[in-house]
Amino acid sequence: MPGTGTLILLRHGQSVFNAEGRFTGLLDPPLTARGRSEAVYAATLISGFGLHLDDVFTSTLMRAVRTAEIVTECLGLSPMPRKVWQLNERNYGSLTGRLKSELLAEFGPDVLHFWRRSLYGAPPPMDAEALGELWRTPALAQLPARAVRGTESLCEVLKRVREFWHQHLRRQLLSGRHALIVGHGNSLRALCLLLDGLSEGEVERLNFPTGHPLVYELDERARPLERGGIYLDPQAARSAAKQVTAEGGT
């Protein structure tokens, strides 16, 4: 719509921990070779559809930052992506770094599903030593105290994403700027909850595949013209999302 920007959501490319089937959370593993290729393909899709970018926002975590850098390099954009801590992945607490298959065997599908997929469920918190190690990582060391909790529910991620939406992103879009958000499965689920007014059940079922751009055209009030947005490669995105679902979700 004239005068209103376009919003593109992109989950970072596959990381080393994604490939290993681990809960990554606020840990900071690099992209795999596949993850780097996914970022290149995302840029190819964005370019192929003639989508213009004024702003690129990313979390502070390297897998999202590097994905954003690859996309902007491929598109020939000079501005560096801007890091926004509110877009960081949720802290999975004591599940962080552990294999999902082991946790499934230990706690069972119902408990694990509640912790990882529901709006209000939060895993048990990590201990003080593990939390201190997180604070010392380069991606998190300079952030405000409220940026790193012992554990988080999706609802708590929603609160910080909502802050970024209302204080900055929504105004940028209403001014006509076109933005790419490179985030994580849960920060993007939270943003879609805001955009689409998702119910608890809908957000519980929502999964983001890595490396697939999702485009929202917005009206004059920054509401989606099409609920759920449009994937630039819908068939491949649906297939990748089904695989994420089969693995237990984002």
From TrEMBL:
The keyword Isomerase applies. Catalyzes the interconversion of 2-phosphoglycerate and 3-phosphoglycerate. This is 2,3-bisphosphoglycerate-dependent phosphoglycerate mutase. Its EC number is 5.4.2.11. InterPro entries: His_Pase_superF_clade-1 (IPR013078), His_PPase_superfam (IPR029033), PG/BPGM_mutase_AS (IPR001345), Phosphogly_mut1 (IPR005952). GO terms for biological process: gluconeogenesis; glycolytic process. It is an enzyme of class 5 (isomerase). Pathway: Carbohydrate degradation; glycolysis; pyruvate from D-glyceraldehyde 3-phosphate: step 3/5. It comes from Arthrobacter terrae. Transmembrane segments: none annotated. The keyword Isomerase applies. The record marks 184 as: Transition state stabilizer. Substrate binds at residues 11-18, 24-25, 63, 89-92, 100, 116-117, 185-186. GO terms for molecular function: phosphoglycerate mutase activity. SMART domains: PGAM. The active site is at 12 (tele-phosphohistidine intermediate), 89 (proton donor/acceptor). It catalyses: (2R)-2-phosphoglycerate = (2R)-3-phosphoglycerate. It holds the Pfam family His_Phos_1. Belongs to the phosphoglycerate mutase family. BPG-dependent PGAM subfamily. Keywords: Gluconeogenesis, Glycolysis, Isomerase. The lineage of its organism: Bacteria, Bacillati, Actinomycetota, Actinomycetes, Micrococcales.
